[in-house]
Amino acid sequence: MRALPEKIEETQIGSRKVNRDEAGFLMEPDEWDQEVAQFIADEENLALGEDHWAIIQFIRDFLEENLVAPDARFAFTFLANRNGLTKQQARKLFFKLFPYGYVKQACKIAGLRQPRAWSTG
C-alpha cells in the first residue's frame, strides 16, 4: 500500500530541486527528465540499459496519453513485443531488469507518483 507523503523531501538533482515523498517517488511527474531517472536509478543501484530506457519511455508515453500509469501487464506486453518474447519470458526479463518490481523501481525511475495500491504483475 501507498505510504502517505507525510514527509516531503527536496532533492537536489543537477542544477535544480525536485520534491519527493518519503519513499523517493516524485511528487510532480512533470519534474521528471532523464537526469532525474538516472539519479533515482543510481539510488536503486541499477545501471540503465537500452531495455530499461525503453520501458521507462513506454511508461512515460502511456501516462501522457492516458493520464494514468499503465498496469504492469501492459509493460510486460510491450517488452514481449519489443524483444520477440512470450509474455512469460518478458515478465522474467522485466524482473531481471527491475528486480524490486514494477512500482518500486520501474515506476519510480519513470517519475510517477507512488500509487495508492498496485499489482506487481
Count of structural domains:
1
Number of helices: 5
Helix content: 40-55%
- Please trace the helix and strand order, writing H or E for each element: EEHHHHH
Number of strands: 2
Biggest sheet strand line-up: 1-2
Shape: globular
Query: What radius of gyration results from the CA coordinates?
Result: 14 Å
Approximate strand percentage:
5-15%
What structural class do you assign from the helix and strand content? Answer: mainly alpha
Largest β-sheet summary: 2 strands, antiparallel
Averaged pLDDT, please? 91
Low-confidence spans: pLDDT under 50, at least 5 residues? none
Instruction: Report the span from N to C terminus.
Output: 15 Å
Structure characterization notes:
The protein is mainly alpha-helical. It has one domain (9-109). 48% of the residues lie in helices and 8% in strands. It has helices at residues 34-43, 50-66, 72-83, 87-97, 102-109, and strands at residues 9-13, 16-20. α3 crosses α4 (87-97). The longest helix is centred in the middle third of the chain and has 17 residues, at 50-66. The protein is globular and about 40 Å long. The relative contact order is 0.18.
